[in-house]
Amino acid sequence: MHSYIFFFLACYSAVYGGPVNLFMNVTINDRPDLVIVEGDIAFDAGSTAPQLIPLKNAYIVSSKWTGGVLPYLIEQSQLTAAQITTITNAMRKIEQQTNNCIRFVGRTTQPTWVRIYAGTGCWSYMGRTKTSGAQDLSLQKSGCVTQNIVIHELLHAVGFAHEQTRPDRDQHVTVNYNNIEAGKESNFQRYLTSEVNTFSKAYDIASIMHYKWNAFSKNGLATITPKGNVSQSVMGSSVQMTNLDIEKVKAYYGCT
Q: Is 190 inside a domain boundary?
C-alpha cells in the first residue's frame, strides 16, 4: 500500500457545488492509514479491492449508530468559532429534518465517536466503522465548512453513500465517460440490485448525496446528464436534505 494518497481537491467543488477552488494535486501524507474513494469516502488502508469491498452495500455499509445517536468531538483549536457554529448548525438541521431520528451529542464516555477535525479535504467514513475509539471526519478549513458539505459528510457518517451509485441510476441520468478525468472513472460505479438497499424509495436527482453535473470533469463539460425534462443544475445544488433523503434515513434507522 502506498504511503501517500493522491486525489484532486478540485473535485470537492465539482461534487458538492461548494466554494472550493483549490485546483491542485494534494498529497495526504499525514494519513497513510486511509484510502479515499469517490472523492470523499474514507476507509482503512490495506483492505482488499478497496474501490469495491467497503461500498458493496452502497446504502448500508456498516453498523448503524445505536438509537441513531452519533457522539462527536470537534477539534475546536483547529477551526474558527464561526466554522464550529456552521458544523453544529448542520447537525441541528439534520436533527430537525429527521424529527430527531438522528441525533448528534457531544462525546463524554461513549466508546465510539466521530472526531471532526480540519484535515486535508472533505471526507468521512461511511456508517459506524469502529467498535471503540474515534473515527475521523475531515473538514478542511478552506472550502469544506459550508452547510451543504458538512451535511453531506455527516450523512456519510450516518451510513449513506452517493445517490448516483444506485442500481437504477442509468434510468435517470447518463454518465458521460468521455468527459471524466482519467483515472476517476471508478467514482461513477453503479451497484447491482443484489448489492444495495434503496429502501424502495425513488431515485433523487436533487439529493444532497448526489454528485454535481460536472463532478470530476476533465474539460468542463457534463459528466452526468439528467434524463427527461430536468435541469442539470439541480444535481449537487441542495443545501439541506431533500424529502427523499429524510425518508431514506428514517427507513434505515426505523423511525416513523
A: yes
